[in-house]
Every structure is written in structure tokens, then in C-alpha cells.
Amino acid sequence: MSRLQVDMVSKRFGGITAVDRLCLEAGRNEIVGIIGPNGSGKTTLLNLINGLIKPDSGKILLGDKPIHTLKPHQIAAMGVGRTFQIAKIFRELTVMENMLATVNKNNSSQTNLYKKAADLLELTGLAHKAREKAGTLSGGQQKLLEFARALILEPTTMLMDEPFAGVHPTVVSKLLEIIARMKSEGKTFLIVSHDINTITSISDKIVVMSEGKKIAEGMPEEIMADREVARLYLGF
């Protein structure tokens, strides 16, 4: 399992600096929560890490290998998975077809892939939906499907954007259960969330962003006691 390192990364869109000389690290068996107000650069950071956009300066390393020049599929092949605030699924395909859609079938037999997909649907509580079209799932179930589809590629690092937003508490509980299990197996997580109670309960470390900058970093209890964080993010 490789350490993820973001080193002095900046990204500008026109006259707006979305990410400003940001540094962070996430190691094996670690959950890093990323919080901050809307427009603080959190999603842009995840997009930079998984290659959807390229940094203007700085570098991103997985272990000792730079990944900021690579394309998203190359970064995914190196073990970086991603879920989005609004789940990106193939609505007209079945749940099982979604699971198999992004897998290189040349690397494994069809039987093994199907079993792996079925096991992940069982893990996420979606096995009974396998033959249904993905577009019929609830918003929370779509997030579970996207998560399961990312896991079929066996990532070592998962980037998750607002996984707990707008979903039923039972889905949140299922996500937390799976994240805890994956962490125990040595996986690394970077999770963007506005759900302060949930993200502080599961994170080993919290990074706070504001206007593209990292304004605080530390253990959850330290961050919640930080007066600057309270002023800028919690509103008091």
C-alpha cells in the first residue's frame, strides 16, 4: 500500500485560485477527512488527485511515483478509486452490468469477475437489485453501487466526495461499515464531507480548507476545538 502525497499543488480557473499551494499526506490504513465551506476547493482537490484536471504547479505522488501527469484511467490502474457527489452510473444498464462495465475482462475470466461483482453487491446490500436497472435505485443505493464498482478494481486508495450527503441513515451505516472494513485491510481513504459528526467519528485526521488553502490539520478533536475552524466553517 502506497502513501499519497500532495505537494504544494495549485490550480487556477481564470482569475480564481481553486487550490492554493496545498500539501497533505495520507498513509496506509488511514482515513483523512476533508472539510470546509462550499467553494473551498475540496472537490477540485479530488479531481486533481485522480487526474480529471491537471495542477498548474506542484506534484502528486503515490508512493514515490508522480501521478499528476497521468490520465484518470492510468491513475485508477495504479490503485486510486473515486466516487462522486452525484453518483456516476449507467442508468440504463442493470446493477450487475454497471459492476462489470469498467473492468478489463482480458485480465480475468468472466466467471471470476461475475463472482467478484456478486460478492461486492452482497457486501453493499445490493445483491437483490442485481438484475434491476441502475436508474431505478434510490440516490443512496446509487452511491453504494458506485462505491462497489470502484472496489471491483481493488483500489488501495479511495477518494470519496460527499458519500453521506442526502442518503438514508441505513445507507450511511452501510457505507461506514464497509469503509471500516476496507481500512482494516490497509486501504487509504480521502473523504470530503459536510457531515461533521460522521466525518469526525471515522477520520484519523481532518484537513480543513478555505478559499483553496489548508487552514488547519489535525486529529478530529483538535480540529473541533480550533477557534479559526469554528469561525470560518462552523459559523461561531
Distance between the termini: 40 Å
**How many DSSP E strands?**
10
What would you call the shape? globular
Q: What ranges have pLDDT less than 50 throughout 5 or more consecutive residues?
A: none
Strand order of the largest sheet: 6-7-8-3-9-10
Strand content: 25-35%
Describe this structure in words.
The structure is a single chain. The protein is 36% helix and 25% strand. The protein has one domain (4-234): P-loop containing nucleotide triphosphate hydrolases (Rossmann fold). It is α/β, with parallel strands linked by helices and 236 residues long. It has helices spanning 42-49, 72-77, 95-101, 110-123, 139-151, 169-184, 196-202, 220-224, 227-234; strands spanning 4-13, 16-26, 31-35, 57-62, 65-66, 80-83, 157-161, 188-192, 205-210, 213-218. The strands form 2 sheets. Strands 6-7-8-3-9-10 form a 6-stranded mixed beta sheet, with helices on both faces. Strands 2-1-4-5 form a 4-stranded antiparallel beta sheet, covered by helices on one side. It is built from 9 helices and 10 strands. The longest helix has 16 residues, at 169-184. The model has no long low-confidence stretch (mean pLDDT 91). Helix 6 (169-184) links the parallel strand 7 (157-161) and strand 8 (188-192). Residues 4-236 form the ABC transporter domain. This is ABC transporter ATP-binding protein.
Features:
236 residues, 25% strand, alpha/beta, globular, Rossmann fold, four-stranded antiparallel sheet, 36% helix, six-stranded mixed sheet
